[in-house]
């Protein structure tokens, strides 16, 4: 089979390439999945450089989420051949086939295509854990979403709308803001990553946002502390800006808000039952048609460099997906 492999960690993608690997065989409690689509996220790009908190041993196949069809079943794995599934894990998605433990796969909603299903799990799981588990979101609350055109940001916009929240989306370019409005119709779309404070306060009647969903960090985080409501929750999702912000403890004390770290994968590992509930919730919402991931582009595996470079230049809206069996 063909697979995209990271053989060395480099800052310029020179450590990646397409290689031939044997098709693996499923062991006890495992299934072999023919991967039809693998979605790429910013952590995948960081892992090619060793810049992500998880550092898989070399060589490895990138791809934290994928969708495909079960083609072989190991002993004790209660899946049937032909089942369409979503796969989640740290690595392994960018290959034509992959072996996965049964607890790493879930049924694929019929309402989604393979590329859409591949783009569901990581981004929407992050949004769910942030808004529901960490943010205790309630219908009618205002949520300020930074990086709203990116994978996890756009998923948060979609999910927040499904949860009945009122959404203020922030994005850096006019084209991104137009696409966000067309795709998910949030209440407001603002320019960022700075200069949004007065608009947020005006929109919320001076109260500020009840929730801030921040995968950007840097200046966006700093300004968010000046337009968050008393009792609000500033949800730290990531630092796509490249700067990890600092905050003096007197600021959340005086303004009465909480800064909450969001690690969706770690949440599931520490609380397995609730982790399964989280995944089931987003799969159910997708099956009901209440959420739908946006696929920016679906490219053949051979075009992997184009896909990674688009993430690096921040031109992707939603997720880019690789198709391992496409010509």
Describe the 3D structure.
The protein has 327 residues and is of the alpha/beta class. The chain contains 11 helices and 15 strands. Helix 11 links the parallel strand 14 (295-300) and strand 15 (319-323). Helix 3 (121-134) packs across helix 10. The longest helix has 16 residues, at 272-287. The radius of gyration is 20 Å and the shape is globular. The mean pLDDT is 96.
User: How many beta strands in the DSSP annotation?
Assistant: 15
The total count of helices amounts to 11
Overall, the morphology is: globular
Radius of gyration: 20 Å
What structural class should be given to the helix and strand makeup? alpha/beta
Low-confidence stretches: none
What is the CA-CA span between the terminal residues?
Answer: 14 Å
Main sheet overview: 7 strands, mixed
The percentage of residues in β strands lies in: 25-35%
Helix proportion range: 25-40%
Instruction: Please state the average pLDDT score.
Output: 96
Query: What is the N-to-C succession of helices and strands?
Result: EEEHEEEEHHEHEHEHEHEHEHHEHE
């Amino acid at each position: 089979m063909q697979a995209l492999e990271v053989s060395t960690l480099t800052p310029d993608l020179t450590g990646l390439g397409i290689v031939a690997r044997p098709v693996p065989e499923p062991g006890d409690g495992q299934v072999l999945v023919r991967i039809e689509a693998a979605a790429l996220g910013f952590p995948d790009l960081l892992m090619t450089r060793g810049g992500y908190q998880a550092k898989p041993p070399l060589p490895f196949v990138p791809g934290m989420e994928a969708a495909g069809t079960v083609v072989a079943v190991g002993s004790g794995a209660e899946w049937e051949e032909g089942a369409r599934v979503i796969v989640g894990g740290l690595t392994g998605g960018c290959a034509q086939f992959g072996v996965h433990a049964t607890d790493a796969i879930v049924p694929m909603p019929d309402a989604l295509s393979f590329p859409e299903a591949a783009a569901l799990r990581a981004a929407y799981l992050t949004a769910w854990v942030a808004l529901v588990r960490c943010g205790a979101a309630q219908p009618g609350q205002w949520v300020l979403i930074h990086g709203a055109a990116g994978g996890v940001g756009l998923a948060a916009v979609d999910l927040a709308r499904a949860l009945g929240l009122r959404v203020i989306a922030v994005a850096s370019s006019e084209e991104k803001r137009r696409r966000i409005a067309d795709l998910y119709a949030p209440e407001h779309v603002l320019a960022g990553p700075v200069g949004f404070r007065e608009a947020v306060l005006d929109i919320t009647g001076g109260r500020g946002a009840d929730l801030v969903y921040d995968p950007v960090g840097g200046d966006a985080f700093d300004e968010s502390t000046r337009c968050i409501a008393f009792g609000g929750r500033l949800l730290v999702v990531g630092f796509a800006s490249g700067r990890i912000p600092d905050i003096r403890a007197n600021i959340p004390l005086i303004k009465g808000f909480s800064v909450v770290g969001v690690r969706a994968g770690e949440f599931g590992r520490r609380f397995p039952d609730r982790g399964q509930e989280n995944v089931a919730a987003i799969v159910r919402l997708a099956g009901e048609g209440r959420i739908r991931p946006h696929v920016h582009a679906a490219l053949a595996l051979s075009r992997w460099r184009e896909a990674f470079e688009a993430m690096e230049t921040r031109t992707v809206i939603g997720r880019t997906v690789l198709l391992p069996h496409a010509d």
